[in-house]
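[Automated response] Your request has been received and processed.

Submitted sequence:
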Amino acid sequence: MKTILLSAYAINPYKGSEDGTGWNIVFELSKYNKVIAITRENNQEDIERYIKENHISHANNLQFEYFDLPYYLRFWKKKSRGALLYFYLWQISIIFFILKKKFEFDITHNLNFHSDWTPSFLWVFKKPFVWGPVGHHPKVPKNYLLKNAGIKAYLLDRLKWYTKKFFWNFDPFLQITKRKAEKIIAINSSVAKVLSTDEQKIELIPAVATRPNTLQEGTTSSRNPSSSDGFTILSVGRFVPLKGFDITIAAFAKFYHLQSKQVQAKTQLILIGKGPEEKKLKSLARNLNVENKVIFISWISKEKLNTYFLESDVFLFPSHEGAGMVVPEALSFSLPVLCFDNYGPGEFINKRCGIKIPYSTYEESVQHFAQQLNNLFHNPQLKDKLSKGALKQYRQKFTWERKGKLINKIYNKIIVKQTLKKVSASKAKQPLTKVSSK
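Generated structure:
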């Protein structure tokens, strides 16, 4: 059995997004390998509680080690103060922690922060090194930011972009990380372009996935939309400019005002999340005369969130991000997805499970999303077809089990390659046998 030394800065079995990704990948990889996972000390309580309260058949393959920088440096962990700076320092410091512990391992793997502009240092151990899933957020188109988020959001987005560009071009450790990586796991196709690295090193495996739910028996019969002739639109995420919730509300309002009074009474948009844009989004709903039809719900438990997935008809997600963790969750509940045709959610959706809107102008995008909402409402056959396709897309692409198998396959190929190298080197060292002249 292989031993994988894995750095997982963000990992928590009770959380979603980055933390949930870390936990689920480690969990799946430990089915096939001995995994030594190094993470932060503040994850220890939840990890140990989960392992204690849940039967894990392969628990003996899981070894968690906890490390953090000195307390006075943890000030930087807050996002507003520089979480990525802390992450950078943490990545450097775990090298000394590993050396002190004297672990034995076959492969090193830097699992997350999903950042394409912060390096790893696990290559120093001169073992096969895997980097990723590595993510990339393209620039948010200028007109989409300025329209509702404003000049401040636009300038902040561009500041982040040029900061990343500085690291791409000038950080020597990032260049070494790219060069030393045996494989780079990319969450979307833009990663290879930005990193300008050997494409043979890239393995495209979206980081997003989810666990099976009540719809995984092969039909959509467990779905329970609020009413047969009503229409519930759902969107989930942090209320920040990157997520495009202003387009969600504007498109819903345009669709809503096209409908009869009877249909309007049975139509609603549910937004689940929290964030700095919440007040502005509520104001937008009020200005567009849909204040009473847009329901804001703060973060809720997984069980309650599942209820909203089951009772909705469409998942509207015009996010500009390079991932979209909630998209496979929507697919797993057989929800058709409406999104932008971009490097993020747009790469997870095809014409069998959703509808993708191309970037154009802000106003045209709002119009196109509204038209597709109208199309889905008035064409139940199309909605039913996409609903069935959504579940199929989830099963084929977005289970954690599948991702665990794909990454383990990468490990196996690396081990075979290393073995062949050793055999070849050994043969090259063998002296030539002299042939007798007799």
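Summary generated for your ticket: The chain has two domains: 3-208+399-418, 231-397. Confidence is low (pLDDT under 50) at residues 217-222.
If you did not submit this request, please reply to this message.
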